[in-house]
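Good morning C.,

I know you're traveling, so I'll keep this short. The sequence:
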Amino acid sequence: MSKIDEFNDSVTNLQKESFRRSLKLFYDASLRIPAYKEFLKENSVNADLIKTQEDFSLLPTVDKDNYLRRYPLNELCWDGSLFSNNIISSSSGSSGIPFFWPRGDEQHRETELLYSKIYSQTHDVANKSTLLVVCFSMGTWIAGVYTTLGAFGASRDNKLNVITPGIEKDDAISAILGLKQYYDQIIIAGYPPFVKDIIDYGNSKGIDWSDINTKFSFAGEAISEEWRDNLLQLCGNKISPLETVNIYGTADMGVVGFETPLSIFMRRRISVEKAKYKHILVDNQLPTLVQYDLTQKYIEVSNSNLIITANYGVPLIRYDIKDQGGKISLNDLCSELQLVESSFPLLNNKSILENLAPSDLIYIRRRKDLSISFYSLLVYPEHIKSALVDERLKGATSGKFFMKTTNDDNHNQVLEVHLELSPGTEESAAVSSLIKETTISTLIEMNSEYRKLYNSIGKQAASPKIYLYEFGTSEMFKIKNKQKWV
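The tokens, ready to paste straight into the viewer:
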């Protein structure tokens, strides 16, 4: 039996065990979580009748609107007590109302195991002395504290130290310059655009990244393979793309999945043969491809949305996370890519398969028509709408716009806002400047993450680029059903 066959046999057994654990979680939640008990009652669900995988798949999904925001936070926790947990993080609040996510010891143990696996598998921290530079925000948001706690756990059995400059570029550069001589390698962990900012900023300060064995751990948003290659080029192409990792994590569920050397290898193959993978791609966009731990998450797909069951701080049964994507088995993807074991490159003198624990693969396309991601924070249409009602802009625009993020020639992210002018208003530098000013001030006021980003990277990098269109001249603003804001 080949390693791939052994791998897939292990996955099949874990899939069965994953469902059994999720079914038990459902039973326990139906008895011990006041909000879920009431939710089942309102939906006429008799928990005793849910016995099979098919029964489970018919349970109503929960989301923020139909479940989380309808009940007091404590009633969403075990036995109605917030103190079944010990730390609380906040979602971004970009939609206007932050949601608070408790978590406890069980989730922290899971985090430690996952980060130990990630850093061992991708960065070989068991054999290389390592400094992890955590460049995520260290406030109430989950990424910075969560990564740090996970790294503390990973450091127990590995040669790993942690420093936490957050999104202060000068502090990050100072730490790297002052400590690099003590380590075989340095891992920079952060939002992808901010990590690139650090590399660019370091170059401007005279750092020769090719002299530093720099590796990367990303989270917060998708990256393209072109972006990954560009980042490594800026560092002198000293490491393989397989020695980077992008983590798919959320405040709702912690780490859902993460790239592995194998998933990156497969994704890069797909990226150069897109025409063959239309069932995975949408609008020719390459999704994030990650593996996930079947012992921690039970994942289904419904109407192209990922539905996740997990015992997080707020236990969630069939939670619609509102991210679009799908599942695919390792065996199926190997077959589609026409890969055999000899196709896999070597990492640390071992076959990539030997570095993996059994798991499934999921691909994530993220949300559509709800928000855009800019330096990993979410920008919603409501932010721009609020900016356009400024008294100084009265009558200047039709109120129709769309926004998107692009990359400039240096692969830096740019926030673009395309707006339609009101009838009779002509395009001018003055109007464009005023829209930019009000948009920035509104984002600073309404979006705490943008405010922190603006203070960190500065006006030039954080400012949106404004495009104006005369009324009725663009097909983009001729509404056929609903205005597309993003």
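Safe travels,
E.
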